[in-house]
Each structure stands twice: as structure tokens, then as C-alpha cells.
Amino acid sequence: MIMEKENREHKDSVFVDLFYQDETAKKNLLSLYNALHDTKYEDEQVIQKVRIEDVLYKNFKNDISFEINGQVLVLGEHQSTVNCNMPLRCLLYVGRAYEQLIDKRARYRTTLVRIPTPEFYTFYNGQKDQPLEQELTLSDAFVNPAGKNSVELKVKVININSDKAHEILKKCEVLREYSQFIDTVRKYSEEDSAIKKAIRECMERGILADYLKRKGSEVENMLIAEYSYEEDIRVKQQEAEQQGRQEGRQEGRQEGRQEGLILSGKIFQTVKSDPALTNEQIAAEVGCGTEEVESARKMFGI
User: Is the pLDDT of residue 38 over 90?
Assistant: First the structure.
């Protein structure tokens, strides 16, 4: 996608702005909550926003959290590959959220302190094929099997791509239009001024029309920053995978050298015990090929 120069002042994604920062954010959040829980809340005052920085994403805000009706929800969005470490990140995230929601003095009470029930969701709208829904669990990362006293945390991943037609898109109009907007941006991805064209088309089609009319230039800057961030993440992932492969090859070569020395030592001991043995007999005795026997003989001068 051909992008204009990134405006570094914009650190929030469009998702965060739409559901957390914009003047319609509480209304949008309430609609999304109702869609997730089949409720019909109308009073936006029941929502208490919780702002947490730099836990899920460093220097880029692509997640939101809020407290409502005795629950604290952590919502994130992914446009790249689903990150299997989301449960771990959410564990750190919700701890920070509770620090804001629970009075510090309450931690020292002897009576039970009631806390909002946590829920974790990730909305996936990337281009790689992913199931309609999946569940990531913290225990999958445990070194040892989870015991009775182990903590568990589950993150529900919902695919909100329009072509997947998840039921939540029918229940939450603003989320459906957001998904359509991202589809439109991708449609123009190979053209100049891609974002401008997508914004213009969505306004004409009535997709997030009021929002884009008010904040079109801000949305453009946020998307530029967002796609730059996603590209940076992809590059780092590729570099990490490449480094892992290199380390794996190095370990393999080291293991190969160690195994070769062990085999040569076995051949040496076999020859010393009975010098009359032929290479074929030694190979059969040690369990290797005659080439390894010849090589070992040359190495030790036997």
C-alpha cells in the first residue's frame, strides 16, 4: 500500500479511537458489549473506561478496557497473525487494570474484596485465514501441566472479517461498518492515495459516514501509523524466525560434531580391541557405514 508520510503524533488505532476516544465511543462500546452478552443496556453512564499503557502493544494503542456491570473487559484488535501470547499479555494487563479499579487500602482487609469479573476478547480482521472463533489459554504456555492451584486465563478470538459473517457483526452495527471500512481500505491497497479513496467511498456508501466526515484526516493519519506499525511487527517477526532457524542450524551442527566424535571414539575402541577386524565388521559392530570407519582410521592413524 502506498502511504503518505506518517504522522508520529497519532498513537491510537482507528479501533481504539472508535470505541474509546471518539465522542461516540461510549455509545459504540455499549453496543459492542450488548452484542457480546445479549443485553440491552442504554445508559452510557454505566461504562467506566480504564486506560492502560504499553502492556499489549509498545508505543501503539490497539486495545481498550472498561468496567461495566461488575465486569472488566479487555478488548484488542489484530490485523496481523494472531499472537499466541495474548493470554500472558492480558494477565499483565488485567493486573494493571485492577490497580486502578481497587482501592489500595482494600488489599489489606481481612474480609473478601469483591472485584469485577474479567473477560478478554481479541477481534481479528487480518488477511490470513483464521477460524470464525478460537480460544487462547494461558495454561498452553505453562512449562509443566497446570495443577489445581494454577491460574487460568482465556482469550476469545473472534474473526470480524466481513466474508466470515460472524454473528456479532449482525448484532453490532458499528463493528460491522468498521469491518467494511477495513475491507474497503484493502481494496485500494495497491493504488496511490489508498486511504483517501477508501474514506471517500465509505462516506458515499454510508459506512461510518458521520465518523469519517468529522475525522477523515485524523483517521487517515491513524491508519498510516497503524499499517506502519503492522509492517514493523511483521519485519520483527521474520527477523526473530530467521534468527531462530540460524540458531537451530548451529545447534544441529554442534550436535552433529558431538555425535561424530562419539562415533569415532567407538570405532577407535573397537579397532584397539581387535585389530584384525575388517572395516565391514567394525561398521556392523558399531552400527555405522564403512565410510565413517575409514574416516576414523585416518583421524587416529589406525
Answer: yes
Where is pLDDT greater, at 175 or 269?
175
With helix as H, strand as E and coil as C, how does the chain read? CCCCCCCCCCCECHHHHHHHHCCCHHHHHHHHHHHHHCCCCCCHHHCEEECCCCCCCCCCECEEEEEECCEEEEEEEECCCCCCCHHHHHHHHHHHHHHHHCCHHHHHCCCCCCCCEEEEEEEECCCCCCCCEEEEEHHHHCCCCCCCCCCCCEEEEEECCHHHCCHHHHHCHHHHHHHHHHHHHHHCCCCCCHHHHHHHHHHHHCCCHHHHHHHHHHHHHHHHHHHHHHHHHHHHHHHHHHHHHHHHHHHHHHHHHHHHHHHHHHHHHHHHHCCCCCHHHHHHHHCCCHHHHHHHHHHHCC
Query: What cell does 204 get?
Result: 458515499
Q: Would you state the pLDDT for residue 249? A: 63
**pLDDT score at 71:** 94
**Residue from 45, 50, 41, 67 nearest 16 by CA:** 50
CB 184 within 8 A of CB 201: yes
Residue carrying C-alpha cell 565388521: 281
Dump pLDDT digits (tens) for 43-101: 999 999 998 876 455 555 678 999 998 999 999 888 777 888 899 989 998 998 998 88
Selection from 232, 197, 233 nearest residue 216 by Cα: 197
Q: Flag whether pLDDT at 169 surpasses 60.
A: yes
